Amino acid sequence: MLKSKPRVKRLSGKTVLHILTGSIAAYKAPDLIKKMRDEGARVVCVMTACAKEFVTPTVLRTVSGERVYSEMFQQDAPFGVLHTSLADLPDLVLVSPATANFIAKMATGVSDDLASCLVLAIRKPILVAPAMNDNMYTHPVTQKNIAQLKALGYHFADPIEGDLACGRAGIGHIAPEDVLLAFVQNILSPRSRRR
Length: 195
Hints:
Layout: E1 15-20, H1 29-38, E2 42-47, H2 57-64, H3 82-87, E3 92-98, H4 100-108, H5 114-121, E4 126-130, H6 134-138, H7 140-151, E5 155-156, E6 160-163, E7 169-173, H8 177-188, H9 190-194
Helix pairs in contact: 1-2, 1-8, 4-7
């Protein structure tokens, strides 16, 4: 009887720093984290204060198997300068979900919390998954901010049309977990890095 080859885990040896911001779509993060871990990734989560309104650090710690960070000056942090030490960990940063507010902060260099400081300190690929009300997503300011980040080399997994928290359907629904996982895998693939 032939033994089947073990499945190749496409993210083995990779670390993803997963930044979560304050969108209702944050409730989907545990499923995505599990999928990334199933592919061999280490996933370290950083939450904004608003993200905690939608998913708890305990849930993220349980599914990631890692400590969850949110405060800029955590006294018991295992690093000296937290934002620069965390910036050295990942092979990729995933901002998912990304609110209009956080996208604006990234585009303008505002760094007033741990998550936004990390974005400025990291020199690895950054993948952004917007999730917000359709009017906020299509607003010219948000579109300008997204275009500016794309011009700087940020990757975007564009939102889809779907049910929104406001009760209507429109563009702004976060991309599905499988799509986000494929983006992460493609960005971190050896072929992608040679381009």
